[in-house]
Design goal:
Two copies of one chain form a homodimer. The first copy, chain A, is of the alpha/beta class. Chain A is 34% helix and 15% strand. The first copy, chain A, has eleven helices and 13 strands. Chain A has helices at 21-32, 51-65, 84-92, 120-129, 147-161, 175-183, 202-206, 222-233, 250-253, 268-278, 285-297; strands at 5-9, 12-16, 37-40, 71-78, 97-100, 132-135, 167-169, 188-192, 239-241, 305-309, 313-314, 331-332, 335-336. In chain A, the strands form three sheets. In chain A, strands 2-3-4-5-6-7-8-9 form an eight-stranded parallel sheet, with helices on both faces. A three-stranded antiparallel sheet of chain A has the order 1-10-13, covered by helices on one side. In chain A, strands 11-12 form a two-stranded antiparallel ribbon. In chain A, strand 6, helix 5 and strand 7 (167-169) form a beta-alpha-beta unit.
C-alpha cells in the first residue's frame, strides 16, 4: 500500500519558547529538526532585553544546533524600560522583532509593559527600523476568557497610530480577534498555534483537569476554534503558523500552581497536517507554515524540502523524560519522514 | 479588646462527600465537629444505591462519629437501574433524598443517569414517599461553562411534571440558574457552596493553574458569583447551604488528570461568615446555614448552638497531611470557637 506523502518547502515557526541552559539543550532539537527558522521568544529568565542579550542568546542557540540548517530569528522584550535607542541597536544587531507582554498575563511576564501609550516613541522607532511588533494580546485584570477581546482596542490603536509598523497578534484564540485582524490593514497579521486549532476549554477543564492543555491565551469555545481553523486554512496571508511551544518540566505543570504553556514542538507540524487534511485544505498547508510568515517578515523562502507521511501513530508520552508533549498518547495521523 | 462573636443555632450542611473507609475516618471530623447534620452524597466507590447500602453506610459513619452530636442524612444515587421499589424501601429505611447525576458530569458519575424521562416512575414514587430529589444540574456533552444552563429545561420539566416532589438544584453556579430557581414553585430549592461565593473562573485558570479550586460545576463569571451571593444573603428560603466539600488526596489533584472537587469542610463556615459580613448580611447568616435547609427537608431545627469569633487567621496548608483545604494559606476572618 502506498503511504500518502506531502513534500513541501521547509517550514518556519514564528513563535517559539526555546528557554536557555539545559532546557534549551533538551528542547531545541524538537524545533530545529523540523523548522528551518523560528522566532525565538525573549521571556527567558533573565529576559532578552537588548542587542547584547540577543547576540549572546543567539550564540547559545547556534552553539547547540550542531551542523547548520536552523536559523533562530531573535527578539527582544519590550518593557517599560525599553527606549528607542534599545530598538535601534537591536535592529542593527539583526533582531527582527520586539515582543510586548502586558504585565502578568502569562509565564515570565512579571516585567511586562504596564502602559502601552508610554511606549509610543519605542513603537515609532520600531516602525522606522523595520522591526516587527509581536503582541501577547491580552488585557490583564479582565475576566480570563475576555482578556483577548479587551486587548483589541489597543491593537486597533497601534495599527492606526503606526501605519507602517508591522504588527503580529500572537496566538489568536477567539473569533472576535480573527475578525479584528481581518478588518485591519495588511500591516497587521496574526500567528495561530497548532493547539488552539485542536483544543477548546472543554479539553482543559471540561472533564478532569488537564494541566498539559493549560495555556495562555486560554483555548475558548468550539465557535472560537472553528473561526481559527477557518482563518488558518483560508489562504489569507495575514494568518501564519507560530507554535507558541512552551516547555515546562512535569513538576511545574502537575502541581498546586501550574505553569501555562503547551509543549507542541515535537508534534505541531503533524498535528497541523491533520487539521488541514480534515478540512480538505492540504493544498493551503504549505502557505500557512512555509509561506505567509516569511513574506510578512520580509524573509526569503526557505531552501530545501520536508516530507510528511500519512502513517498514524500515537504521540509519545514523554520528551527527554521530563516534558509531556502535546498529543501525548493521542492518535496523530501524520509524521515527519526521515 | 472584645473579639466580635456570633452565636447561632448549630448549622446543617445539605451536600457533603464523606467518602468511606480510611478517607471517611480522616475527613469526617471536619464536618461532624461543626455541623449537626449533613446530607451525605452517595457517589462512593461502589455507590450507595439502595436501602441496604444506605443502612450499612450510615452505620459506618456513625461508627466513626464517637459520642453523638452528628447525624448523617442518607441519600441513594438514582441511576438507570433504580426502580420505584428501590425508592420505597429506601424511604422506609430513613433515606431522605435521591441524588441524580447525569452520566459523566463529575467525580464518580460514570454510572449516572442517561435518560431523565426514563426515570419518571421513580420520581413519581419519590414524590409519593416524600423523598427529596437532589440534582447535579449539568447537561453532559455541552460546552463546559453552559452545562448548567442547558440543564435548566430538565429542571423546569421535572418541577412541572411532579408538583409535589421536592427538588434541590445542587451547588448553583450561574445567574441564570438562580433566576430559574426563583421563578419555580416553592417545591424547588437550591444549595449554594462556600467556594462558589468566593471563586470565579479566574481563580481556577486566570493566573497559574489552581487544581485545588477546580470543581464541578465550574466557578463562572464575576456576574454569576454576584448573583449567587445575592441569592445566599437574600433571606429567601429557597436558598440554603450545601458545602459540596469533596476531599481528594493531593496526588489525585496535582497530576495530569486532576479530580474535580474543593475540600471545604474545614473552612466553609468561617468563610461563609466572612462573605455575609462583607455583604452586611450577618443577620441572615443563621437562616442560610441553620434554618432554610432544615425547613425544606421537613426536619426540626437543630438543638444547641455554635459560636464563631472574628479572629483572623490563615487557612491551614494541609489537612491530615494529605488534603489541601479550601483557603489554604489564605486569610480567613472568622473561626469556630472552642
Amino acid at each position: 500500500m502506498n503511504v500518502p506523502k506531502l513534500t513541501m518547502r521547509r517550514p518556519d515557526d514564528f513563535h517559539v519558547h526555546l528557554r536557555d541552559g539545559w532546557t534549551l539543550k533538551q528542547v531545541l532539537p524538537a524545533t530545529a529538526e523540523v523548522f528551518a527558522r523560528a522566532l525565538v521568544m525573549p521571556n527567558t529568565t533573565p529576559p532578552i532585553l537588548n542587542a547584547s542579550d540577543a547576540i549572546r542568546y543567539r550564540s547559545e542557540i547556534l552553539g547547540e544546533c550542531g551542523k547548520g540548517g536552523f536559523t533562530p530569528l531573535m527578539t527582544i522584550q519590550i518593557t517599560d524600560a525599553t527606549v528607542p535607542e534599545t530598538v535601534r541597536t537591536a535592529s542593527q544587531a539583526g533582531v527582527v522583532a520586539g515582543k510586548l507582554y502586558p504585565v502578568g498575563v502569562t509565564t515570565n511576564s512579571e516585567n511586562g509593559a504596564t502602559d502601552i501609550k508610554a511606549l509610543y516613541q519605542v513603537f515609532g522607532e520600531m516602525e522606522r527600523a523595520g522591526m516587527v511588533l509581536c503582541l501577547h494580546g491580552e488585557e490583564p485584570g479582565e475576566f480570563c476568557l475576555e482578556r483577548e477581546s479587551y486587548f483589541l482596542d489597543a491593537l486597533e490603536g497601534l495599527a492606526g497610530s503606526f501605519p507602517r509598523l508591522r504588527i503580529v497578534l500572537e496566538h489568536l484564540s477567539s473569533e472576535e480577534a480573527v475578525e479584528t485582524v481581518l478588518a485591519l490593514p495588511e500591516t497587521v497579521a496574526a500567528t495561530i498555534t497548532a493547539h488552539h486549532l485542536v483544543l477548546t476549554l472543554d479539553d482543559v477543564i471540561g472533564g478532569k483537569l488537564q494541566p498539559h492543555h493549560f495555556c495562555k491565551p486560554l483555548p475558548k469555545t468550539p465557535a472560537d476554534r472553528a473561526a481559527l481553523i477557518e482563518a488558518a486554512i483560508s489562504g489569507n496571508p495575514k494568518f501564519f503558523f507560530g507554535s507558541d511551544s512552551a516547555p515546562h518540566r512535569i513538576p511545574t505543570k502537575e502541581c498546586a500552581d501550574g505553569a501555562a504553556g503547551v509543549f507542541s514542538a515535537p508534534t505541531a507540524l503533524p498535528v497541523l497536517a491533520g487539521v488541514f487534511e480534515h478540512e480538505d485544505a492540504l493544498d493551503r498547508f504549505e502557505a500557512f507554515v512555509s509561506g505567509h510568515g516569511a513574506r510578512f517578515y520580509g524573509l526569503s523562502p526557505n531552501e530545501g524540502a520536508i516530507t510528511l507521511e500519512r502513517r498514524p501513530w500515537k504521540g509519545r508520552l514523554r520528551y527527554c523524560g521530563e516534558y509531556v508533549p502535546f498529543m501525548a498518547g493521542k492518535p496523530i495521523d501524520w509524521r515527519v519522514a526521515g
